[in-house]
User: Which sequence fits this backbone?
């Protein structure tokens, strides 16, 4: 295991490497000293993709690489574009054009303004210097190492598969005789079919369904900045986002693992083994120079 302290960890394969890269950008739980948040820490912790890094920490046994952010998404979100900045957060004018998306306008852009509706993260506005520090020292190093991993795999094999790993809160709907959970267990996001070969999406969907889980594709999560940057299917760069329902392994009220954690982890290891076999069976034959 290697990396940069408090920024990311990188776990490389035990066996010959495959062009298969997993990353977990939202499971970081080392809170920088200069965060200076005003909300309860417990609220920030509930915004994490809790323990997703641990759910996938066996992928290196199957020839895959795992990259994980160590800092929390609420400090700076590497799955947002770097110009997706909420102007309500700024103490001064940003010195370049900005492109705030609806996520920023809802308080969950590059730098989070709200930890949940009605609850601000900060009691003050942020300077340009503060945000640039986070970009230069956290955001860019994470993106740089992910790009290097994908570029190296593509150079060596002529093809690469990338799985961007997340968890999603459970959404329950009140009904006359109780509460109904219509949410799928997994959501695969391929940006409406543009970020990877449909065969890879279908393979993952079928493999997850075969384990008894409900799977949706692109509804409601399609994949955001990391998948957008990583994908170029026609050039052999396949990227997909996987969202896992926290209801499968996490108690969102107590903010801790449930007794089902180990079962899910074991099933994800089976999924990784099947995915590694898929990759091995679909490698491009590289002609000698």
Assistant:
């Amino acid at each position: 295991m290697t990396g940069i302290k408090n920024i990311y960890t990188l776990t490389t394969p035990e066996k010959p490497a495959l062009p298969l890269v997993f990353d977990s950008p939202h499971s970081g739980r080392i809170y920088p000293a200069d965060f200076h948040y005003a909300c309860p820490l417990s609220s920030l912790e509930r915004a994490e993709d809790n323990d997703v890094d641990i759910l996938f920490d066996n992928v290196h046994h199957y020839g895959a690489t795992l990259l994980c952010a160590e800092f929390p998404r609420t400090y700076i979100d590497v799955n947002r574009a770097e110009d997706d900045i909420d102007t309500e957060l700024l103490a001064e004018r940003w010195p370049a054009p900005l492109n705030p998306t609806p996520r920023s306008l809802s308080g969950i852009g590059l730098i989070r303004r709200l930890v949940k509706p009605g609850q601000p993260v900060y009691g003050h506005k942020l300077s340009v210097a503060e945000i640039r520090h986070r970009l230069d020292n956290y955001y860019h190093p994470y993106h740089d190492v992910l790009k290097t991993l994908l570029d190296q795999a593509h150079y060596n094999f002529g093809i690469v598969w990338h799985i961007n790993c997340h968890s999603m809160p459970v959404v329950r709907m009140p009904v006359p005789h109780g509460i109904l959970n219509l949410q799928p267990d997994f959501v695969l996001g391929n940006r409406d079919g543009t970020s990877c070969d449909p065969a890879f999406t279908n393979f993952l969907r079928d493999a997850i369904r075969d384990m008894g889980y409900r799977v949706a594709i692109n509804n409601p999560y399609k994949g955001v900045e990391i998948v957008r940057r990583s994908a170029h299917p026609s050039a052999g760069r396949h990227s997909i986002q996987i969202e896992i329902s926290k209801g499968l392994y996490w108690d969102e009220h107590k903010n801790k693992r449930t007794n089902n954690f180990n079962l899910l982890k074991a099933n994800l290891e089976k999924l990784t083994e099947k995915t590694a076999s898929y990759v091995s069976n679909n490698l491009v034959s590289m002609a000698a120079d």
Observations:
- The helical segments are 41-46, 52-55, 102-105, 128-157, 198-210, 225-230, 261-281.
- Residues 2-73+138-281 form a domain with the Aminopeptidase fold (CATH 3.40.630.40).
- The two ends are 33 Å apart (CA to CA).
